[in-house]
Amino acid sequence: MNRLPPKLATSLYPGVHSRREDFVATHINYTTQIHASGIFLGWHRHFIWLWEQALRDECQYSGSLPYWNWALWASDMTTSPLFDGSNTSLSGDGLPDPTQIVPGVAGLGLPQGNGGGCVHSGPFAGLEVHLGPFHFPKDYQLPENAFADNPRCLTRNINNYVSRLYMNQTVVDRLLASSDIVDFQHTIYHGPIENPSQKRGPHPATHISLGMDLEDLFASPQDPSFMLHHGMVDRMWTMWQESDEGDRRWALNGTDRLNNPPTSPPVTLDTWVEFGALDRPRQLRELMDPLAASYCYHYS
Q1: Which CATH number fits the domain 66-256, given the four candidates 3.40.980.10, 1.10.260.40, 3.40.50.410, 1.10.1280.10?
Q2: Where is the Tyrosinase copper-binding domain (predicted)?
């Protein structure tokens, strides 16, 4: 995907140099709709499915999209085959750079990781990224130069303090035990409703556990782990849906705007969501069942 040319016009998207960055730019373009909203789960389900189809159709990939099981190596992510820096990993930590402070970690009052600099081991050592970074723009509005070309290295700052607290099996079990879609959405974003001191749910916690590039709300797909992280998000939603088909398969809550402002109408199964150049618009009803519509997949 890094070697294939983009389909987006570089005149309009100067920071898009490859097919992979078509996906990054699309995520940036819809960020203010697809997070902390009623379309978060469905949009990202389809987004990673489109990524898998591109791997199959354009790169001759014959496998399926893996998922990052947060809990398996929550005690020490550097021992995970995903992040141990081996030739079959997604690369390891970044070089030590104590000047790189991860805002999300600082907000949790936890120690920073030991990395922060350029990823230096494994297949993505020296990977160049071009979009962002976005430092939580005012009111989360897309800046005018959102697609400017800003070449730099992929960075990581692996943080085991975050993974131990917010990505462990107890957290996963509580998420799957959510009583309804409101509870599920709150728990995956903010932690259990009954435990407000937790501060973070596993979705944002996993983003900040790898440092600035994956934490970037807009440009986070620049870190290759994004697709596997959202594979796990989709797995959790799928398993939760399947545990009570009658009440959960078609359950929706929220609007089509970030943080569900009261001025935005609630989403329904008829709500249309967009994917830019990646795909035609889809109704949410098309994104609710991994065994229906365009899909045919399941999770172990």
Answers
A1: 1.10.1280.10
A2: 223-234
